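User: I've been trying to design a sequence by hand for this structure and keep getting stuck. Would you show me what you'd pick, starting by listing the structure so we're on the same page?

Assistant: Good idea, let's start from the same input. This is the structure you sent:
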């Protein structure tokens, strides 16, 4: 199993390109199931989760072609609307095939998903929405089995804000009979990117980016070409990596318009941030100021950046309070950061981080995707060598991480 070896102390500087967003690419690739015509996607990141999903689509009868960051999907031969446990056990996003399969085929059998161990992410909102649209849904033997002659438009209200739930129901509704209204919808940029892709394929959608999305069902969708948005979490992670090392970097192929809450906190920490049309530059002081934060659904501070900010607070001036409101088990990285010498106290869903003068390299273990990123950020500033084990989590969400960090001057290498 691969490990990452980091020799801390190098100040990051230079320029690096940001990849397409994993959390946008996964639902958008699933949208290809909705049409019998080829769909072309560009700026698709080369990640483990993307490879897993493409393999899943392939076993359903979808023709998959990949060349660099371009993926062409042809679902004209879709003949097996099943997502088996063996293929989806490592990836919660696999549930995103449910809505498109029911809408296109009138049937789907999808394994309850796996993924990161960061807390409960139930699919009951997906199921309730499909049932309200007329589907018969059973959960048996670890699978969600849904059938319907044709979905009917309905008013859907989710009990909680759910990104994948909003995406799944939006994809189901584009081929439904009549109008569907999704209330309490997720407002994330990735939801908007999916809506833009579906509209390019012929869907009728309004309100994406607000908490009420309206979809007028159509008879069929057609092929299209769509470019995946830049990864705002990868962007934020590299900004944190530069900040913690007192560095100065320019990130290209990305935008600050998805990252207002993150950039505000980095500026509070003492960083200078300059936004361009498709790039962000950051210059950091020798030592950051501690910044407190509270995670919440977009446009508030993203839960996927909580771990990285905990890492930079470990060596900042002062005390920071971090409150996690999205997932109940997302402080597992705190124990590993403590192995590096961090002063962190956990009380329920709140972490109190007292900045220390220095961290010391040690062997640590990644427990989930963003926890892995926090350990990388901490390792970059820790004295000596830090070895991060179980980095397959990193490969799920960060494309060529060690290469990009090395291009910025980090001393990092993969041990196979």
């Amino acid at each position: 199993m691969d490990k990452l070896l980091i020799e801390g102390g190098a100040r990051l500087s230079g320029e690096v390109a940001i990849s397409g967003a994993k959390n946008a690419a996964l639902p958008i690739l699933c949208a290809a199931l909705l049409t019998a015509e080829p769909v072309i996607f560009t700026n698709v990141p080369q990640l483990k989760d993307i490879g897993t999903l493409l393999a899943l689509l392939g076993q359903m009868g979808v023709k998959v072609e990949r060349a660099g960051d371009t993926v062409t999907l042809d679902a004209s031969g879709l003949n097996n609307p099943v997502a088996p446990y063996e293929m989806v056990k490592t990836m919660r996003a696999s549930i995103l095939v449910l809505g498109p399969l029911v809408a296109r085929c009138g049937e789907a059998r999808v394994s309850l998903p796996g993924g990161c161990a960061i807390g409960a992410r139930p699919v009951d909102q997906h199921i309730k929405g499909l049932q309200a649209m007329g589907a018969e849904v059973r959960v048996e033997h670890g699978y969600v089995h849904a059938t319907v002659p044709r979905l009917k438009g309905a008013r859907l209200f989710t009990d909680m804000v759910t990104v994948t739930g909003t995406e799944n129901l939006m994809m189901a509704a584009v081929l439904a009979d009549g109008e569907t209204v999704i209330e309490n919808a997720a407002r994330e940029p990735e939801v908007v990117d999916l809506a833009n892709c579906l509209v390019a394929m012929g869907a009728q959608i309004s309100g994406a980016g607000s908490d009420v999305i309206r979809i007028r069902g159509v008879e069929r969708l057609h092929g299209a070409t769509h470019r995946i948005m830049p990864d705002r979490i990868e962007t934020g992670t590299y900004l944190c990596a530069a900040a913690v090392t007192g560095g100065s970097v320019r990130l290209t192929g990305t935008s600050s318009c998805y990252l207002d809450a993150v950039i505000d906190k980095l500026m509070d920490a003492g960083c200078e941030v300059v936004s361009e049309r498709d790039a962000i530059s950051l210059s950091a002081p020798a030592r950051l100021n501690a910044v407190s934060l509270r995670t919440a659904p977009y446009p508030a501070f993203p839960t996927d950046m909580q771990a990285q900010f905990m890492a930079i607070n470990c060596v900042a001036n002062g005390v920071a309070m971090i409150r996690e409101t999205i997932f109940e088990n997302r402080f597992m990285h705190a124990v590993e950061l403590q192995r590096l010498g961090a002063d962190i106290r956990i009380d329920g869903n709140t972490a109190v981080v007292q900045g220390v003068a220095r961290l010391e390299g040690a062997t640590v273990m990644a427990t989930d995707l963003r926890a892995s990123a926090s350990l990388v950020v901490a390792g970059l500033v820790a004295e000596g060598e830090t070895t991060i084990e179980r980095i397959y989590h990193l490969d799920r969400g960060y494309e060529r991480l060690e290469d990009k960090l090395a291009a910025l001057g980090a001393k990092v290498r993969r041990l196979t």
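That's my pick for every position. To get oriented when you compare it with your attempt: The first helix runs from residue 22 to 30. The CA atoms of residues 288 and 316 lie 5 Å apart.
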